[in-house]
Design goal:
Helices cover 40% and strands 12% of the residues. With 458 residues, the protein is of the alpha/beta class. It folds into 2 domains: 22-51 and 313-457, Aspartate Aminotransferase, domain 1 (Alpha-Beta Complex); 59-310, Type I PLP-dependent aspartate aminotransferase-like (Major domain) (Aspartate Aminotransferase, domain 2, 3-Layer(aba) Sandwich), CATH 3.40.640.10. The strands form 5 sheets. The protein has a 5-stranded mixed beta sheet with strand order 2-8-7-6-5, sandwiched between helices. Helix 3 (76-89) runs parallel beside helix 11 and helix 14 (363-375) packs across helix 16 (415-430). It binds ligand F0G.
């Protein structure tokens, strides 16, 4: 019998989490106006809101924290991190930032201007936000298969090359500052991009003389999928795959809160000296001096270790297999989920799960609330609430998919927690036909409403 995967670590310290009753949770979620973002964490048993900055650091990372050099200029921790970033990504220039969107803010300040177009594969919200904030447009060139939850395509994060070339052909080069490739693609469900696609996008960009940048929040998970799904990569190490992947681009931004295995941090790494010089001005203005840019010395020290640990196969196998384990359990129970399973999260298809709840009553939100009430589990709605209103008509935008995302923090929850989540969902699924009504919005912000929106139960 093939031995199953097992975590390549053991537990040295534990953090208590609080159980509660369904009656308590019914009261708490009502008090929170049925918005899961409004719940204090002590009212949540298993928190799957995000995998961003919520993971556990290793003993080696904590040890590195103690040696953090907090010098304003020339910090040793910065120099060490710069060396590791260069070793892992191959990029020459490096600017630390306090998180991923800060890296976007700095880089885009240097590169994006009004009227520009930035093509990519389902840009993440903050990426899109920083593009649109500059009165430029994000053009989605993801392959069509990404938007069908049942198609088993191994690389649903891929770019459709024809869509991308069309943007290049129809617009002048000076309007396209760069292409951004998100690995893995969070917005299409934590789906990977193949090396073949990365290479082809890179070649196309080069032929039109347009730079290629990576949004690398989950770059190591992407490399794991390449190793396990793409021909020719089985015998390559994750570090070799990562290096090859970045060799096809001109630079990267990263939220280190994911595959940096730290609770806070981010950076920009790139090869072009001119862009680097421009970005340094904004880094100093928005983030901090070049040798800390919004991070503590100790956080940079922990990140240097985290980048190395995240690019080890054994860690990635247990990480991705744990997410897949939840997916498999749910499929066993008949729960409709996006497939193939994402690298960092399982996405439940609320259109198939609760079609009995009208779309204008926010069925994915209703499902996320039910999951909280039944199990004390916090996921997040990725559907109509998140899609916001049309800026002109002010009508709800109904996206193709209504999803509930269950993002799994790294090295944090046990297999028992995952079983608990799966059973809670099964119990809801078994009584799904009783769900007939959802929620009505009683208060919302003009933009990014999901964080503060208030609902009432219908
Ligand atoms: N890019 C991607 C692909 C992301 O998933 C995120 C964050 C960011 C950029 C921004 O990074 O949060 O450090 O500023 N994603 C989190 C999530 C918030 O829950 O998926 P940040």
């Amino acid at each position: 019998m093939k031995l199953p995967y097992a975590e390549p670590y053991k537990i040295k310290m534990v953090e208590s989490i609080k159980r509660s009753t369904q009656d308590q949770r019914k009261k708490w979620i009502k008090e929170a106006h049925y918005n899961l973002f409004n719940l204090s964490s002590d009212k949540v048993f298993i928190d799957l809101l995000t995998d961003s900055g919520t993971g556990a650091m290793s003993d080696q990372q904590w040890a590195a924290m103690m040696s953090g050099d907090e010098s304003y200029a020339g910090s040793q921790s910065f120099l060490k991190l710069k060396e590791v970033v260069n070793k892992i990504t191959g990029f020459t220039y490096f600017l630390p930032t306090h998180q991923g969107r800060a890296a976007e803010n700095v880089l885009f300040s240097a590169m994006v201007k009004e009227g520009d177009l930035v093509p990519g594969n389902s840009h993440f919200d903050t990426t899109k936000g920083h593009i649109e904030f500059r009165k430029a447009s994000a053009i989605d060139c993801t392959i069509d298969e990404a938007f069908d939850t049942a198609i088993l395509h191994p690389f649903k994060g891929n770019v459709n090359l024809e869509k991308l070339e069309k943007v290049f052909i129809e617009n002048s080069k000076d309007k396209i500052p760069f292409v951004i490739l998100t690995i893995t693609c969070n917005s299409s469900g934590g789906q990977p991009v193949s090396m073949k696609n990365i290479k082809a996008v890179s070649k196309l960009c080069k032929s039109y003389d347009i730079p290629l940048f990576f949004d690398s929040a989950r770059y190591a998970e992407n490399a794991y999928f390449i190793k396990t799904r793409e021909e020719g990569y089985q015998n390559k190490s994750i570090k070799e795959i990562v290096k090859e992947c970045f060799s096809y681009g001109d630079g990267m931004t990263i939220s280190a809160k994911k595959d940096g295995l730290v609770n806070m941090g981010g950076f920009i790494a790139l090869n072009d000296e001119e862009i680097y010089k421009k970005a340094t001005v904004f880094n100093i203005m928005f983030e901090g001096f070049l040798t800390y840019g919004g991070m503590n010395g100790r956080d940079m020290a922990a990140l240097a270790v985290g980048l190395d640990e995240a690019t080890e196969f054994d860690y990635l196998e247990s990480r991705i297999e744990q997410v897949g384990y939840l997916g498999k359990k749910l499929v066993e129970f008949g729960v409709p989920v996006l497939q193939p399973f994402g690298g960092h999260a399982i996405f439940i298809d609320a259109n198939k799960f609760v079609p009995t709840i009208p779309r204008d009553e926010y069925r994915a939100q209703a499902l996320a609330i039910e999951l909280y009430i039944i199990g004390g589990i916090r996921g997040v709605e990725i559907g109509t609430v998140l899609a916001d209103r049309d800026p002109f008509t002010r009508k709800n935008r109904y996206p193709e998919l209504e999803l509930v995302r269950l993002a799994i923090p790294r090295r944090t929850y046990s297999q028992n927690h995952i079983n608990y989540v799966a059973v809670a969902l099964k119990n809801i699924f078994d009584t799904r036909n009783e769900a007939k009504s959802g929620y009505v919005i009683v208060d919302e912000a003009p933009i990014m409403r999901h964080f503060t929106v208030k609902f009432e139960k219908i």
